[in-house]
Amino acid sequence: MKAALLLALRVTTGALLMIWGSIKAFAPAKAMMVSDKYYDGAVSDAALQMPLGIAQMLLGALVILGLFRRVIYPLQAVVLVGGALAIWKYLLDPLGLYLLTEETRNVLFFPSSTVAVATLILLAFKEYDALSLDRLLSRH
């Protein structure tokens, strides 16, 4: 059961990376708009969108497969936990009661906290991730 749930976390968090990577690579204007509005323009350079998008899609694919987990899981944590930390006000005040206003609140950002925790769970329980490709290849 643990291995199946860790596989599910890998597939869903990796898919999220692939989706956002594809937006950066194939809809760079949308990615830059999100970066400008919610991340203070951290990655709003048009020239960065394609390489960052491809790197993020590759990272997502490696997470899904469970390959190179010793390096890939920390990278995933940097991207997903870092992304959540950048929108901390939306996580601490999703209803706009004290940090945000009714106009600036966005409840849809709150699940970023769940994704960040899921990423940390993958790191913490890596030894139970028996359905990863790394683990399966090491048996042969």
Topology:
Layout: H1 2-26, H2 28-38, H3 46-65, H4 69-86, H5 88-92, H6 111-124, H7 133-138
Describe this structure in words.
The protein has helices at 2-26, 28-38, 46-65, 69-86, 88-92, 111-124, 133-138. 25% of the residues are buried. It has one domain (2-128). With 140 residues, it is mainly alpha-helical. It is 71% helix and 0% strand.
Radius of gyration: 16 Å
* Helical proportion, percent range: over 70%
Q: List how many beta strands DSSP finds.
A: 0
Domain unit count: 1
Shape: flat
Biggest sheet architecture: none
Output the helix-strand order.
Answer: HHHHHHH
Count of DSSP-assigned helices: 7
Q: What structural class do helix, strand and pairing data support?
A: mainly alpha
Give the low-confidence spans.
Answer: none
Note the gap between the termini: 23 Å
Beta content:
under 5%
Average per-residue pLDDT, rounded, comes to 92
